[in-house]
Amino acid sequence: MSSARHTLAFAARNLLRNRRRTLVTLVSIAFGFTALALFAGYTKNTYLGLRNQAVYGELLGHLTISRRGLAEEGRLHPEKYLLTASDIARIAAKVKEAEPQAKFAPRLAVNGLISNGRVSTIFIAEGVAPEDMRDLRGPLGNASGMLDAAKSGGVTVSQGLAAILGLKDGDDSSLLASTLRGQANALDAQIVDTFSTGNAGTNDKFMFMPLEQARALYDAAGRADRLTVVLPDVERTDQERERVAAALAPLNMDLEVKTWVDLSVFYRQVKNLFDMIFTFLFSIVLVISVMALANVIGMNVVERTREIGALRSLGMRRAGIQRLFITEAFLLALIGCALGFFLTLALRYGINAADITYVPPNSTNRVPLTVGLNLPLMGMVVVLLGSLGALAAWLPARRAARQPIIEALGHV
Prior knowledge:
Blueprint: H1 2-15, H2 19-57, E1 63-67, H3 70-73, H4 78-81, H5 85-98, E2 103-115, E3 120-127, H6 130-137, E4 154-158, H7 159-165, E5 172-178, E6 184-195, E7 206-209, H8 211-218, E8 226-230, H9 237-248, E9 255-259, H10 260-263, H11 265-303, H12 305-313, H13 318-353, E10 357-358, E11 367-368, H14 375-401, H15 405-409
Parallel strand pairs: 3-7, 4-6
Antiparallel strand pairs: 1-8, 1-9, 2-3, 2-5, 2-8, 4-7, 5-6, 10-11
C-alpha cells in the first residue's frame, strides 16, 4: 500500500514538471469526454421520449398479443386471424395469472374512407374501448385525442386529416369500409377531438374510434385482432414477454407476443442511427485522447531517460519504471475525465435552462432539446480511456526500462 502511495505521489509530481503540456492534454481529454457525455445524455432523453410516444402516444403498449402471422396475412384472410370474445377472455385470464398488475385492451384495426359530405380521403383507424384507452395512455392520460365514453359514435382524428376535410370538434362525418366478407359498410361518426400523432407520415390519415364502432363498421361483433398489454415496469418488458408467452402456451392458439420495440419501426431506426453516430464519435475521441496521452508519456520518457537510468541504478526494478509511467497516464485520463464531467454538468444545465426547441425529421411537433445524464456510459468512457491510455504508456515505458543502465545514464 505504501509503495502504491509513493508511486501515485511521484507520478503526480512528474505531471507538474511540464504544466503546459499536461494542461493541454487534460483539456483535450476533458472536451472529448464532454462531447461524448452530452451526446449520450441527449440520446438517452431522446430514446425515453420516443419510448413514451410509442408505448403511450401510439398506444402500442408494452406487449401485443395476436395470432401468429397477423401482420403478414391478416389483411388477406382476416377471419382466420381475428380473436373471438371467448379467445379474448381466455387470453386475458392467462395474462393476469402471469402479471396480476397488467392492464390490457382488445384492439381492432380498420381502414377505409372518411367523408365530410363533399370530399373523401383515406383513414387508418384503431378501435379501442374509451375506458381502456385511458389505461393505455398511462402518463399521457390527459393528452388530446381521448375518446368519450358518453359518445358511442364519437371519433378522434389526427390534425392533418381534420385539416384536409375541414373538420372540427362537433362536426359529423361518414365512414366507409369493407367488412370481413368484402361488402361495403358505412357509418356516421362525430368528431369529438383532434390530436397530433407526432409523425408526418400518419398525421393526415390516423383516427381512433370506439371498439364497438370499429366492430360494427368491420362487421366483426365481439372480435378483435390483438390485445395490447400495459405492464407496471417498462424496463422488464422482455422478461415479462417470456413469462406471458409461457403462460399462453397451454392454450394451443398459436399466439405470438411482441414488444413495443418489435412494433415501433421508427424507434428502432432512430436508435440504430444514434448508436452508430455515437460509436463513430466515440472512436474519434478515443483515438485523439489516446494519441495525446501516448504523445505526452512518450515525450516524458525521452526527456527523463537519464532519470530512469538513475532510478534503475538505485535499485528500482523495470516493473517499477513501467508502473510509474502507466500511473501518470492513468492520472491524466482520470483527471481529464473528471474535468469533463464537471464541464458536462455546467453545459447540461445551460442547455436545459435555455429552453431550446426544434422539429425532428418526419415529425409534426416541436420538441425541447434536453440533455440527461447517462452515468453507465460515462463510466465506460472513463474505463476505456484509462485502460487504453495505460496501454499506450506501457509501450514507451517498457522500451525505456529495458535500456542498459549505462546507456540511460549517458543519454543526452
